[in-house]
Design a protein that fits this description.
heterodimer; A: 447 residues; Rossmann fold; 3 domains; four-stranded antiparallel β-sheet; 16 helices; 53% helix; B: 281 residues; mainly alpha; 10 helices; 78% helix
Chain lengths: 447, 281
């Protein structure tokens, strides 16, 4: 009986399975050089291993001969490394084996398993983990191939679906909108109305985007000056509001006023002064600072905090829809990868089969040598070709039979069957691909 | 021979249209470079076709409806391509490629062969100058109208707070308004030169600058419309949605002058249509 005796294993905790307290404890901070990965690989009796550790997850991706005992070993080792009680952290771990491990890794790398669906950092983090552990020599042919396919899958997901396309935070939505209205933001003038906490937060965010000094207008002039000095902007009093509006390209209003401070009629006059140059207004105050009718004016684009939030929600929904599409891409890639691992299983058997047939042929030819001695060279060649053609034709049946079984789950049975029928068992001693006489498909593990 | 290249170009434009339009209906996250590649391939084939015809005939191919439409399509694609190189946008491609395809299809219904002896007036260097300027103006106004349509659509999405995929793949309002601002004087310049060169040609051919031929009349109306637009933009500061709507209205007028007048009225410009009506033997 032959089967791939190496199995993929993923053991990990993430934001879904463990509270932040546990996640903080089970991280691998001292692993810049892969020394912890090497330690785990050696003491945990793993063939290949990668440790992935981000703010939201810690995972061990491994190739092992015996997944069950490896899981036990790993949990014990992880608790020892972090000085934790094994029973305390054990229940938080998820364990994925074989195909499920592959699928999990592909989903993680494609950012489908992230806390914020589709966030872009994870690919880089996985790449970094792989690079580090590859140079620490803890990866081998199976993980190298697996990671390569994971990155390929992530790339497909990123380009073929919109899972990472839309903005999913209020600040980001506001910036995207500003760009769609005003083009490049660097040379745009920003006006903050109100100098409260919210205004400060917004200013901090904007300071990195715009080069022109931010103008701040507040009821109490002193507060405006204070905030302005913080962000190297300029301050003005409330009486100058209309002039400031006439100059600005982006307005963010966040005063604590009970009455709207920017009214329709006022804004209409301002727009005439601006010659209807477009202006993007964001009202994050509660109650509102800007009369909603202002949005009806030509060239004014007014969004309040609820508008922005609903864009965020919609985008999140859109990402979830796209994630379904991405899931199908992941499934395709998982299947392709699993087929590859299965080919490792039948490949040695095909080689053995061909070798066995060739051995029979050469033996029989040797026996007949006396009787065929009278043949001339051309005739000898013809016999050679004839006999080779016969064994190839015979071998074709069982090979096709095994290759066909890739599509079904019966591969092991089929391969086993072929081995028994042709008496190949002695050829594939030890049942391990790397011990079979298969230089072509040889798997060379470093450890 | 040039017909083969013409057909290849038309097929590439068609492929580009299909790629671009299906791109709009899907949710891919790219600049749709395949569509652009097809357009470029089409442009190259189209250029070869026109140059070949020029060499084969020995004079600038401008005597038939086929030539005029083909050159018009070529100009639209060429201008579109320069814009795409600066700032790739699939939505612009999704408009330009189908328009080019349709123009090529209409052109192919006309015969490119000049079976009748060419009217002597057409054998003049004024022909390529006059037609090139007029068509260049039309092409610029066509692109301007596309930018206008995109502006109106994008503006509507932002005003109504419908921030979806279309909002994302459409260019920013600023970009589109800038396109309008830059295209308007260029198109107006070409239109003016087209009319002036036409008048000079008329004077050398018939001895009078202006004959109130229907095409001339409508060209003048178009010219006044665009002159008003230039004035509104520069002097009154009209921009954004108003400018975009004017670009669309102006385009309707341009198309009427270019195609409608030739079909409805008979005049000097019917020389072209005379050559067209010849049924290939």
């Amino acid at each position: 009986m032959i089967c791939l005796t190496h199995d993929f294993l993923v053991l990990g905790i993430n934001h879904n399975t463990a509270p932040v307290l546990i996640r903080e404890k089970v991280s691998f901070p001292g692993n810049h050089d892969g020394s912890i990965t090497r330690f785990l690989t050696q003491t945990g009796d793993l063939l290949e291993c990668i440790i992935l550790s981000t703010c939201n997850r810690s995972e061990i991706i491994a190739v092992t001969k015996d997944p069950d005992s490896s899981v036990e070993n790993l949990i014990r080792l992880i608790s020892e490394i972090h000085g934790l009680n094994q029973d305390q952290i054990g229940p938080y771990f998820y364990i994925k084996k074989g195909q499920e491990a592959v699928r999990h890794l592909f989903r993680v790398t494609s950012s489908l398993d992230s806390m914020v669906l589709g966030e872009p950092q994870i690919v880089g983090q996985v790449k970094e983990a792989f690079r580090r552990d590859a140079s620490a020599n803890t990866t081998g042919p199976l993980l190298n191939r697996l990671m390569h396919r994971a990155f390929f899958t992530a790339k497909r997901v990123r380009t073929e679906t919109g899972v990472a396309l839309s903005a999913v935070s209020i600040a980001y939505v506001a910036v995207e909108l500003a760009k769609k209205i005003l083009g490049e933001l660097e040379q745009r003038r920003t006006l903050l109305v109100g100098a409260g906490e919210m205004a400060e937060l917004t200013a901090r965010h904007l300071a990195s985007l715009v080069k022109k000094p931010i103008k701040i207008i507040n009821r109490t002039f002193e507060n405006a000056c204070e905030l302005a000095s913080q962000f190297e902007g300029t301050a003005d009093s409330m009486e100058k509001l209309d002039d400031a509006l006439a100059m600005a390209d982006m307005v963010i209003s966040s005063t604590g006023s009970c009455e709207p401070i920017i009214r329709f009629q006022q804004m209409k006059t301002v727009m005439r002064r601006r010659r209807h140059k477009p202006i993007f207004m964001i009202d994050i105050a509660m109650p509102r600072d800007i009369e909603p009718e202002v949005n009806d004016l030509d060239g004014v684009y007014l969004y309040n905090i609820d508008d922005l939030q609903s864009v965020v929600d919609e985008n999140m929904g859109e990402r979830r829809l796209e994630a379904e599409k991405a899931g199908r891409i992941v499934d395709q890639e998982v299947n392709k990868f699993i087929n590859w691992t299965r080919s490792l299983e039948w490949a040695p058997t095909i080689v053995s089969l061909k070798e066995k047939f060739e051995e029979i042929r050469t033996n029989e030819m040797a026996k007949m040598n006396g009787k065929l001695g009278s043949l001339n060279e051309a005739e000898k060649d013809a016999v050679e070709i004839l006999t080779k053609a016969i064994i190839n034709k015979i071998a074709h049946g069982p090979i096709a039979f095994m290759k066909q079984s890739i599509k079904t789950k019966k591969i092991n049975q089929h391969v086993d069957f072929v081995q028994r029928v042709f008496g190949l068992d002695e050829f594939v001693s030890g049942n391990e691909p790397e011990e079979a006489k298969t230089s072509e498909y040889e798997i060379d593990h470093r450890n | 021979m040039h017909l083969i290249f013409f057909k290849i170009a038309a097929i590439f434009y068609l492929l580009a249209s299909i790629v671009y339009v299906t791109f709009l209906l899907r949710s891919e996250n790219s600049k749709c470079l395949y569509g652009f590649a097809f357009i470029l391939a089409g442009l190259v084939a189209h250029t070869v076709s026109i140059v070949h015809l020029f060499v084969a005939q020995g004079f600038f191919p401008m005597a038939t409806g086929f030539d005029a439409l083909s050159l018009f399509a070529w100009l639209v694609v060429a201008i579109h391509t320069t814009i795409q190189f600066r700032d790739p946008n699939p939505v612009l491609g999704a408009m330009a490629a189908p328009i080019a395809t349709v123009l090529m299809l209409i052109a192919s219904t006309f015969s490119y062969q000049i079976t009748q002896p060419i009217v002597p007036v057409l054998k003049s260097w004024w022909l390529p100058i006059h037609v090139s300027f007029a068509l260049a103006g039309n092409a610029v106004f066509t692109i301007m109208a596309m930018a206008g349509a995109m502006y109106i659509f994008q503006e509507r999405l932002i005003k109504r707070k419908k921030i979806g995929r279309f909002h994302r793949i459409l260019p920013s309002l600023e970009t589109l308004d800038k396109l309008n601002r830059q295209a308007l004087p260029i198109g107006f310049f070409f239109l003016t030169l087209g009319i002036i060169s036409g008048a000079l040609w008329a004077s050398s051919a018939w001895g009078s600058y202006w004959n109130w031929d229907p095409k001339e009349t409508w060209s003048l109306i178009t010219w006044f419309a665009y002159a008003a637009m230039v004035h509104q933009r520069l002097a009154l500061g009209w921009r954004g949605k108003k400018a975009a709507m004017l670009a669309l209205a102006g385009f309707a007028l341009v198309m009427f002058t270019f195609i409608g007048v030739s079909l409805l009225f008979v005049g000097h410009h019917s020389f072209v249509s005379l050559a067209l009506r010849v049924v290939p033997a």
